[in-house]
Amino acid sequence: MAYTVTxxxxxHHRVSAVVPVSRDDERVGVxxxxxxxxxxxxxxxxxxxxxxxxxxxxxQVPDHIRAQVVGRVEEVSADVEVEGxxxxxxxYAARHAGTHLSQLLNLIYGNVSIYPRVRLIDxxxxxGFLQGFRGPRYGIQGLRVLSGVFGRPLLATALKPKGxxxxxxASIAANFALGGGDIVKDDQNLADxxxxxxxxxxxxxxxxxxxxAETGRRCLYFxxxxxxxxxxxxxxxxxxxxxxxxxxxxxxxxxxxxxxxxAARYPLVLMAHPALTGSYTQSPEQxxxxxxxxxxxxxxxxxxxxxxPNFGGRFSYTRGQCLAISGRLREPMGAMxxxxxxxxxxxxxxxLKAMGVDYGADAVFLVGGRLFAHDRVLRDGTRAFMDAIxxxxxxxxxxxxxxxxxxxxxxxxIQRYFPFEEGFQWKGRESSPYKDxxxxxxxxxxxxxxxxxxxxxxxxxxxxxxxxAGGYTSREKHLHTHIIIGARGEAVLALGxxxxxxxxxxxxxxxxxxxxxxxxxxxEPFGFYCIVDHxxxxxxxx
Amino acid sequence: MAYTVTxxxxxHHRVSAVVPVSRDDERVGVxxxxxxxxxxxxxxxxxxxxxxxxxxxxxQVPDHIRAQVVGRVEEVSADVEVEGxxxxxxxYAARHAGTHLSQLLNLIYGNVSIYPRVRLIDxxxxxGFLQGFRGPRYGIQGLRVLSGVFGRPLLATALKPKGxxxxxxASIAANFALGGGDIVKDDQNLADxxxxxxxxxxxxxxxxxxxxAETGRRCLYFxxxxxxxxxxxxxxxxxxxxxxxxxxxxxxxxxxxxxxxxAARYPLVLMAHPALTGSYTQSPEQxxxxxxxxxxxxxxxxxxxxxxPNFGGRFSYTRGQCLAISGRLREPMGAMxxxxxxxxxxxxxxxLKAMGVDYGADAVFLVGGRLFAHDRVLRDGTRAFMDAIxxxxxxxxxxxxxxxxxxxxxxxxIQRYFPFEEGFQWKGRESSPYKDxxxxxxxxxxxxxxxxxxxxxxxxxxxxxxxxAGGYTSREKHLHTHIIIGARGEAVLALGxxxxxxxxxxxxxxxxxxxxxxxxxxxEPFGFYCIVDHxxxxxxxx
Lengths: 542, 542
What we know:
Chain A has about 550 residues and is α/β, with parallel strands linked by helices. The first copy, chain A, folds into 3 domains: about 1-130, RuBisCO large subunit, N-terminal domain (Alpha-Beta Plaits, 2-Layer Sandwich); about 155-410, TIM Barrel; about 415-535, Jelly Rolls (Sandwich), CATH 2.60.120.10. In chain A, about 30% of the residues lie in helices and about 30% in strands. Chain A contains 16 helices and 29 strands. In chain A, the strands form 8 sheets. A 6-stranded antiparallel sheet of chain A has the order 21-22-23-29-24-27, with no helix packed on it. A 5-stranded mixed sheet of chain A has the order 4-5-3-6-13. In chain A, strand 4 and strand 5 form a beta hairpin. In chain A, helix 6 (about 165-180) runs parallel beside helix 7 (about 195-215), helix 6 runs parallel beside helix 15 and helix 12 (about 290-300) packs parallel to helix 13 (about 320-330). Chains A and B meet through strand 1, helix 2, helix 3, helix 8 and helix 10 of A and strand 1, helix 2, helix 3, helix 8 and helix 10 of B.
């Protein structure tokens, strides 16, 4: 069994690779909290196993599908946490567990979310399945290297309130950084159109940069990523180009799979916010367990840091729920990096001791309201907090550095100028005979990959093709489109049923699934530029 | 107040337009179910108004922000549905309600989802705000025109089970269509890599096509859209190119805003599946009301059809909850089309009468298991169901047609061949002096928009620019990149600090935010091709 995954090359380019997923005997385990007597729960678990895989009553499912696709009830046991409850574990063949995070969610809780009194408590994912997920790009170690801070928890705060001027927000950011804070993030209520966003984010980034220049440390600023779905990349590109190293994101609002996609494509720290998660976690009889959602699933989606309301604050989390999240974020999980728990809300210097005991050094303490007042107080408040942290943990500092490649640095290395040379060659680019057309026939074609295959940030590739006298390109069709420009000589462009003469500077657009071919019936070489989507489907026979 | 929205032109192209959003006096209303005495509920509502807008305690919020940004508690009243409950309505200035669906969700329920016993019951959106949303593209009338069926409910079924062969699924589709059914959709458990998806979807589409040729009607086939986040467009393109008219989608799994984005870009019917919604709807004390989530919010996200479990089936929905969804889908809501309620689950001919009374003619009845058996029985079962529907409703048929432009047809109209003409002109394309550089200085530049501005489906535009002797392009930088190809003459390419000679067939890649300019210091015209992302940011001064 194999499936196609999207491998990050640059944020705008996806390369589909077929990777092995799961051995035939590997199974995904899903554990629910159910209510009733042992045999009732067993019957309900069996019903769920059918519901979540084939959505048909048992008697309508053919034997081979029942054996291969339908879930198997593995165990029913008492639930020690909730009176009258039991836990049932169902397993599915890993190769039927879905080929991406959205479909995994569908399998583990899609329809049964609507059953009364079914709570999703745990999942177990086999190694082969986990290999399809990169998980957190930075995780605990990566963020330590990035910030240069070891040995103690990090201190974070939020820029707020919404409605404050850009200058006011930038001043908060600066003073928090000057006070020695580690991470300043946007409040999740901050949301702007792109032009306003650019102004605000640039001002805050500059304020933090200037403060960093003064302190010699690297306080990180994470703006909130929230935008219309199609605009994410624009916002992310801007953040990355500014040299910022992370963003705040709300996975349950933008979608877990969208979050994973961003984590896979951008070398940015993802700090996950729990907005909208309450509907899943609140009821002990329904929804998804705190640790599983804000720990395991957020980590699977690539969250480097997971914010949750600390117990004792204005939300109703218990200590057990907080420690479950914290534990899930850092427990062994395939080759995946552990992530940072970030308890927040109602935090004060007085409870630092207890928090240190509960969360240890690898935690991001998110402090809000108590630091806020006028600038001087904020800076001093931050300093006092930092001193208290250093009083309990032994801080070790290094020079901040970048464990994940920065895109800005990437771009600097890319060659950008390709002078034309005799015989339709380009300095800095190699020419090669074309031979990559599967079972499609062609003759006498050479190719020069000019732009797009070397990490450039464009959505299209530019290639030069040359067809010898008497040669032709393969007759093919595909979903992606072409733009072609004649460069030398003359050919016949077969476009659907038409035969067109194609010479230097002629232009053609080849629409989706249109059968096309270039045939050189002359005695001279024919050359053309071809512009094509970087991400594209494979050509098919007509 | 204005903000930038994304307007659909073609699925791959977004045009940002600044549209007026809300008058200053327009407010968004949000109603919650809360528990406690009147004054307790009032205080809690006030706390929520701060939590959801500025996330700060009252005393820390400056007066002007309190007046403009913080919500206002408008009303607290008894909740007749749940004993001991009250309803509190909070209003926010519409211009602070978020500029897109994700941020609206954040405002109405992000953080308070984590409060104990706060249920979101209703929202009211002013006209100006609603104008930013297209809503369902087809809605009730559009789908009737598309299918040519008037006067009666539509009958739908699901292709299942997962694990069945492509032939078996195609046979179900064919027999349902031959029996006279209206819509056949994939089961939401069907999820494949792209190549497998293509084979399955094509086989089922062909089976339905052939059945339609026999019946003379148009049964519609909606495959399930589920894919890694970055692959959606590939799947959607394929579905659209096959000539299919809709997809099944799970909005709470892929995200409401992602759903809206797809609805805005693709002329496809969206049939929404309720997977994962249970965590929101199940508890009367928590989450989001059934009608608001599966009705109003799904409709806002562009769902043409909203599936929900009918009461009396294997899920626990009540009649009141079903009718609330049904009502919300069809109630007046700005200029937005009404959508189809699609009750499903446990449906039989015997309860058609009651369903007809409850839902009326404008409903899609989703019938599953009861139609399934071997082919002949399925066809006959469908026919019996259709007869029963026609027995209760007066069917009127028209020739099926397409209320929303089909992309396939669009593409056919696009001109695709542009022969080169003397003086660097192209047949079919106009040349115009360049004048669109804002306050950036340039001299003697003309432009020909070759490909990309006329509805072509490519991610890049191709333009030709020509700079007169002594002329120059504007010195500028931007986030988007360029690829340029020399076409005639010679110029100086200023790239960052470098000055490069640029002649015919020379190639350059201009990286993000790199300052660049082309200067013609010769006595002849200089011309170049420029390849640029279709969606791009505005050039800035260096």
